[in-house]
Amino acid sequence: MEYIKVIIVGGGVAGLAAAKTLGRDVNYVLIEAQNYLGGRILTVDAAPDLTIDLGAQYVHGDKKNTVYDICDELNILLSDDEESDDDALIVTSEGKYCKSEILDKATDLWERTRNKAEEKYDDRTTLSPISFADIVPKEFQKRLLSSSSFSKDLIQPFIDYFMKLEMTETSCLSLSDLNLIEYLAYEDLEGEYENDLKNGGYRPFINYLKSFIPNDKRIRLNCEVIRVKFMEDDRKLLVEMNYLNQQCMKTIICDHIIWTTSLGYLKENFHMIFADEPKLIQQKQNSITNIGFGTVNKVIMIYKKKFWSRHINSIVLLHTKNDLSFEISDELRQQLQIERVDSDMFKEIVNMLFHYDVLPSTDIPVLICWFVGPTAIMIENLSEKLIGQVCHEVLCNYLNIVQEKYQPVRILKSEWHSNKYIRGSYSYSSIKSTKHDRRQLQASYAPDGIRRIVFAGEATHEHYYSTVNAALETGILAANKILSIIG
C-alpha cells in the first residue's frame, strides 16, 4: 500500500498554494478529480489569439495583496492606458438611451444606502439575522424617489438592476437569503476593486503556481477521493480514491490531508466521504449547511464586428416594460421549441439579462452576459447556440439594430453548478450563517490531538471569502499548519 506524508485534495488555487508552501522536500501529492488544475479558474482558448476566463476573471484589490503582486510580476495585469474608457451604454425597453451620469448617480445612491445600513446595523451580531432584501431595496427606493434625477418609470428598473448586480457580486440564490449583518461585515480588499487581466487571463497565474511542483508525479488528475478514515492504532489516515481514467480504486496511507475542495462539493459529499469520522461530521456539518454557495454563470458572445462605440465598456438594460415579449427570429423560435423552452422560461431568461460587459483585454469584439440565481442554473441545461441567440436578440431589440447583421461567430457558456466536483461558483453569507461558521469550517480535525486534516479554500476565509485571494491565503495557511507539525 502506498504511503504519502501529505495529501492535498483539490487542485484549485488553495491546493496549488498549499503545494507551493510545502515545498519540494515534503513528500506530498496533489489529488484533483478533474482533468485540469485551477478549479474555479478555467481559462479556455475561445478563438485564435483570444482566451476567456470562464470562472474568476478579476484581481480584487491592489494593496498588500499577494495575488495582485504575483500578477504584476508576471506582467499580466491590464494597465490603465490599455483599458477602454469607463462608460456604460444604458438603454430602456423602449430603446431610450440614458446618460451614463444617471447610472453614476444611481450607483452613488445605492452605495449611500448600503453605508446607512452599515451605520444602523453594525456590530449587531447578537440579534436575529436580517435579510438584505428586507432593508436595502426599500431604502434605495426612497432615495431614488427623493431625487430629481430619476423619472418614475426608471425607479423600479434601477432597483431591479442593482439587486441583480448585488446577486452577481455575492452569488446568492436570492437577496432574501443574503445575511445583511454578515454582508456588511465583509472586508473588501484594499485598493482598486476589480483589476482586469490581459489576454491570457488567469492562465499564467495558475502556471506560475504549478511551476513550484517538482514534477508531474506529484499531481494526480482524474482522481476522486471517495473515503477518508483515521486509523487510531496506526495514527494514520486511510484515503480511498477512484482513478477515473483507469476505472479502478486505490488506497493511500498518509499522515495529513489538506482539504481544499469547494463548499458546494462538501455540501453534497461530506457525509459520504467522512462517514467513518462522526466527530468530524459533528464539528463541521452546521457550517457546511449554513454557509451559502451560489452559482454565477457567463454567456460569452464573440463577434466579427463591433456594434457599440469604442469608449463603451458595458451595456446596461433597464426593463421599463412589464411585458418582456418581443419579436424573435424564426431560427430562435424553432430552437426554443426543439429545446422545450416555454414562454415562462423564456421570460425568466430575458428578465435576467441586465448587464453585458465588454471584454477589455482584446480588440476582438466580445460581450460577457451574467446570469445568477435559479436562472443561472436553468441555462446550464440549454445549448450554447440557444442561450447565445437569446442574449444577442434581446440586446439587438433594446439597441434597435438588425440582429441578423451582427450575428455572433461563437458562443461559450460556463456551467459551474453542473460540475459535480464544484457545484457552483463561490460562497456567501446566507441568512443562517455567521462568522463562527467560517471559523468552524476552517478548523482542523485532530482526532489524536494532532492536526490530521486541515481545511482551506475561499469559503474558509473569514474576511474576504469568494475571492482568489481568499483561496490563496487559506492554502498557504493550511500548509504552514502542517509544516509546524512535521518540521
From TrEMBL:
It comes from Rotaria sordida. Gene3D superfamilies: 3.90.660.10, FAD/NAD(P)-binding domain. Its EC number is 1.4.3.-. Its cofactor is FAD. The keyword Oxidoreductase applies. This is Amine oxidase. It comes from the Eukaryota. Pfam families: Amino_oxidase. It is an enzyme of class 1 (oxidoreductase). Keywords: FAD, Flavoprotein, Oxidoreductase. Residues 13-483 form the Amine oxidase domain.
